[in-house]
Automatic annotation (TrEMBL):
Pfam families: SET, zf-MYND. It comes from Mastacembelus armatus (zig-zag eel). This is [histone H3]-lysine(4) N-trimethyltransferase. It is found in: Cytoplasm, Cytosol; Nucleus. It catalyses: L-lysyl-[protein] + S-adenosyl-L-methionine = N(6)-methyl-L-lysyl-[protein] + S-adenosyl-L-homocysteine + H(+); L-lysyl(4)-[histone H3] + 3 S-adenosyl-L-methionine = N(6),N(6),N(6)-trimethyl-L-lysyl(4)-[histone H3] + 3 S-adenosyl-L-homocysteine + 3 H(+). Residues 6-240 form the SET domain. SUPFAM superfamilies: SET domain, TPR-like. GO terms for biological process: heart contraction; methylation. Protein-lysine N-methyltransferase that methylates both histones and non-histone proteins, including p53/TP53 and RB1. Specifically trimethylates histone H3 'Lys-4' (H3K4me3) in vivo. The activity requires interaction with HSP90alpha. Shows even higher methyltransferase activity on p53/TP53. Monomethylates 'Lys-370' of p53/TP53, leading to decreased DNA-binding activity and subsequent transcriptional regulation activity of p53/TP53. Monomethylates RB1 at 'Lys-860'.
Length: 432
C-alpha cells in the first residue's frame, strides 16, 4: 500500500485528479519503490519459457502434472500459483484446442479470485484501490465495448466452474479498469511476457517528460528516477511510446486513456521538427506534400498493424519496403514514420532468419532512436541488446560487446545495477 511506503504522498494533481508526489529527494537511477502485482498472468505464448508463478526464465521447467501446459521452477512455485492456476487447469484439459480466453479475460478472472480468497482485512484495503481505479466505462466506444462484451462471454465460458461473477455492469467496469490501468510486463528486449495490475503504480500520472520509469523484476514493478527529483515533485511516467510527434501522442492518449497531455513538451512541440524531418532537396518540399505523406504514413501504420497476423512474412516485408520507398521520397531516414517501418521490417527479417537484413535495419534505427527518445529509454537499450546479440551471432564480437556496454549504461539506471538482466548480460559478454 502506498500509504505504507515512506517518501510519498497522494495528492490532487491539478487537471489530472489524484496523483503521487515525493516528500524526499531522489537521484537518477534511485529506486523510488517496488510494488508486488495485485494480480498478474503469463502470456500463453511464453508458456514453457517462463515460470508461471515468478516469471523466471530458465530451461527445464517442471510441467503441471494435470494440464501439462503450465510450467514452474519447482514445487514451491507450483504450489504458490495453484490458487490462480486452478482457474484454468481443468478447463484447459476439458476444452483442449478450444480453450482460448483473451489475456485480459484471464487477468480479470484472477482479479475476481483474488478478491474472493484474500483475507478480508488485507483485501479491504486493496479492493478499495482496485475500485478506485479509473475505468472511463462511459467513454468506451462501440468497438471497445464489443471487445469487452466478447471478453466477458469468454470469462463466463471458460471460468464459470470456479468463479462467481458480479453483475454485467460491474464486469464492464472491471474490464474497462484493466484496459486503462493494466501494465504489460516486458523482458529486456521489450517482448511481451504478460499483463498485471499494480494499484500503487496506477496512481502515477502521465507526462511526455517523465521523471520515473517502470521496469519489472519477476512479477514486481520497480519505479526508478530518470531525473533528479526534489521534495514536492510529482511522480510522472509515460503511458505511451514517446517516439512520435505531439499530435500522434495525444491521439493515442485520447484513444486509450481519454485525456490530452499538456506537459511542457506537448506545449512547445520542441522535438516535432526533428521527428518529422524531411529529405533535403534543391527545391524545398511544399508543406502540402509533407502533410499528405504524413497522412499516408499514418494510414500505412494502421494497415500494417491490422494485417500483420494475416499476411505472410514476405507480404509484410513487401509492405515495409514499398512504404519506405514511398515515404523516402519526402522523409529523411530519421523521420519517425520511416523508423517505425524500419523497425517492423527488422522484426520481419528476424522472423525470416535474415540476420544480415535485421542488422541493416537496426543500424539505421539506432542513431535516430538515441536522439529522439528521452535519456534512459528502454526502447534504445533494447535496440542495443538486439543488435549486440545479432553481432555476436555473426561472430562480430567487438561490435557486440560495444552494443552491450551501451545498453548497460541505460539498464543500470532503468533496472538497477543488481537486476537479473544485468547479471545475465555480463555472462553473455564473458562467453567466448
Amino acid at each position: 500500500m502506498m500509504s505504507c511506503i515512506e517518501g510519498f504522498e497522494r495528492f490532487d494533481s491539478p487537471g489530472k485528479g489524484r496523483g503521487l508526489r515525493i516528500t524526499r529527494s531522489f537521484k537518477v537511477g534511485e529506486l523510488l519503490f517496488s510494488s508486488p502485482a495485485y494480480s498478474y498472468v503469463l502470456s500463453v505464448k511464453e508458456r514453457g519459457c517462463y515460470c508461471e508463478f515468478c516469471f523466471t526464465r530458465k530451461e527445464h521447467l517442471a510441467r503441471c502434472g494435470k494440464c501439462k501446459k503450465a510450467f514452474y521452477c519447482n514445487v514451491k512455485c507450483q504450489k504458490g500459483d495453484w490458487p490462480m492456476h486452478k482457474l484454468e487447469c481443468s478447463a484447459m484439459t476439458a476444452f483442449g484446442e478450444n480453450w482460448c480466453p483473451s489475456e485480459t479475460s484471464r487477468l480479470v478472472a484472477r482479479i475476481l479470485a483474488r478478491k474472493k480468497t484474500q483475507k478480508q482485512r488485507c483485501v479491504s484495503e486493496k479492493i478499495l484501490l482496485i475500485e478506485e481505479l479509473q475505468s472511463h466505462v462511459e467513454d468506451v466506444d462501440n468497438e471497445k465495448r464489443e471487445m469487452n462484451e466478447a471478453d466477458i462471454a469468454g470469462l463466463h465460458r471458460f471460468y464459470s466452474k470456479h468463479l462467481e461473477f458480479p453483475d454485467h455492469k460491474d464486469l464492464l467496469t472491471l474490464f474497462s479498469q484493466v484496459a486503462c490501468n493494466g501494465f504489460t510486463i516486458e523482458d529486456d528486449e521489450l517482448s511481451h511476457m504478460g499483463t498485471a495490475i499494480y494499484p500503487d503504480v496506477a496512481l502515477i500520472n502521465h507526462s511526455c517528460l517523465p521523471s520515473v520509469i517502470v521496469t519489472y523484476n519477476g512479477t514486481s514493478a520497480e519505479v526508478r528516477a530518470v531525473q533528479d527529483m526534489k521534495p514536492g515533485d510529482e511522480v510522472l511516467i509515460s503511458y505511451i511510446d514517446l517516439l512520435y510527434p505531439t499530435d500522434d501522442r495525444n491521439n493515442r492518449l485520447r484513444e486509450s486513456y481519454y485525456f490530452t497531455c499538456d506537459c511542457q513538451e506537448c506545449k512547445s512541440r520542441s522535438k516535432d521538427k526533428a521527428k518529422l524531418k524531411v529529405r533535403k532537396q534543391s527545391d524545398p518540399i511544399e508543406p502540402e506534400v509533407v502533410n499528405n505523406m504524413v497522412r499516408y504514413a499514418r494510414k500505412t501504420i494502421r494497415e500494417f498493424r491490422a494485417l500483420r497476423h494475416m499476411k505472410t512474412p514476405s507480404e509484410l516485408m513487401e509492405m515495409c519496403e514499398q512504404s519506405l520507398e514511398e515515404m523516402g521520397a519526402v522523409f529523411d531516414d530519421s523521420n519517425v514514420y520511416m523508423l517505425h517501418m524500419m523497425y517492423q521490417a527488422m522484426g520481419v527479417c528476424l522472423y525470416m532468419e535474415d540476420i544480415d537484413g535485421a542488422v541493416r535495419y537496426g543500424e539505421k534505427i539506432l542513431k535516430p532512436y538515441s536522439k529522439l527518445y528521452p535519456p534512459y529509454s528502454l526502447n534504445v537499450s533494447s535496440m542495443y541488446l538486439k543488435l549486440g546479440r545479432l553481432y555476436m551471432g555473426l561472430g562480430r564480437r567487438s561490435m557486440g560487446i560495444s552494443a552491450f556496454k551501451k545498453a548497460m549504461v541505460i539498464m543500470e539506471v532503468a533496472h538497477g545495477k543488481d537486476h537479473y538482466y544485468l547479471t545475465e548480460l555480463h555472462k553473455e559478454m564473458a562467453q567466448k
